[in-house]
Amino acid sequence: MKGYTVIGRLASPKGTSGHLKALLETDKEGFDHIEAFFIEDSNGLPLPCFIESIDWEPDHALIKFEEVSSKEEAYELAGRVLYLPSEMVEEGPPETEGNYGYLSGYEICDEQNGVLGKIEEVLQMPGQELALLYFHDRELLVPLNEDLILNIDKKQQRVDMRLPDGLLDLYLDED
């Protein structure tokens, strides 16, 4: 959406009262003054979702929107991209290791093998983060670190990578 910046993605509902897990590209600093996130409606226009509360967990936020009061209503928003007006976003996410949770839903493209698939989830492991995706109908875990990531294209929601030699072979040769 023109004039808006991707700030994260809504993940799964939590509980029965309409709370949603949110994977945000930034930490909680600067969110005190925000009254609403925006999602894209079916016409490509920004639709405000007014925030009732945000609870911060170590690797995600738990958001309750005013308009969402049940688990069923929360499921309708799950997977949606969250936006803020560009003028409200001072800068993108810190370019530091250990901050890749917002890549859930992005596509991974390896320079040798092309498109591998969509990141289903970013797993927090001791010492690193792993992207979980499905490649040739098999679960694939890809390490996310600055040495392997060539580029992150937020507009295209794509991560260009240079995977280590033999990584895909480990998954394809398991028969």
Features:
SH3 type barrels, six-stranded antiparallel sheet, 7% helix, mainly beta, globular, 175 residues, Elongation Factor Tu (Ef-tu), domain 3, four-stranded mixed sheet
What does this structure look like?
The protein has 175 residues and is mainly β. It folds into two domains: 4-88, Elongation Factor Tu (Ef-tu), domain 3 (Beta Barrel); 103-172, SH3 type barrels (Roll), CATH 2.30.30. 7% of the residues lie in helices and 46% in strands. The chain has helices at residues 71-77, 167-172, and strands spanning 4-14, 19-24, 36-40, 46-56, 61-65, 81-85, 107-110, 114-118, 121-125, 128-135, 138-144, 149-153, 158-161. The strands form three sheets. It has a six-stranded antiparallel beta sheet with strand order 3-4-5-2-1-6. Strands 8-7-13-12 form a four-stranded mixed beta sheet, with no helix packed on it. It is globular and about 50 Å long. The N and C termini lie far apart (44 Å).
- Which residues form runs of ≥5 with pLDDT under 50? 91-97
Counting DSSP E segments of at least 2 residues, the number of strands comes to 13
Q: If you average the pLDDT, what whole number results?
A: 82
> Per the principal axes of the C-alpha atoms, what is the gross shape?
globular
CATH class of the largest domain: Mainly Beta
Give the amount of beta strand, in percent.
over 45%
- The strand line-up of the biggest sheet is 3-4-5-2-1-6
CATH architecture of the largest domain: Beta Barrel
For the largest beta-sheet, the strand count, sense and barrel status come to: 6 strands, antiparallel
**Gyration radius over CA:** 17 Å
Query: How far is the N terminus from the C terminus?
Result: 44 Å
How many domain regions?
2
In which range does the helix fraction lie? under 10%
* Succession of helices and strands: EEEEEHEEEEEEEEH
- How many helical stretches? 2
CATH-defined fold name of the largest domain: Elongation Factor Tu (Ef-tu), domain 3
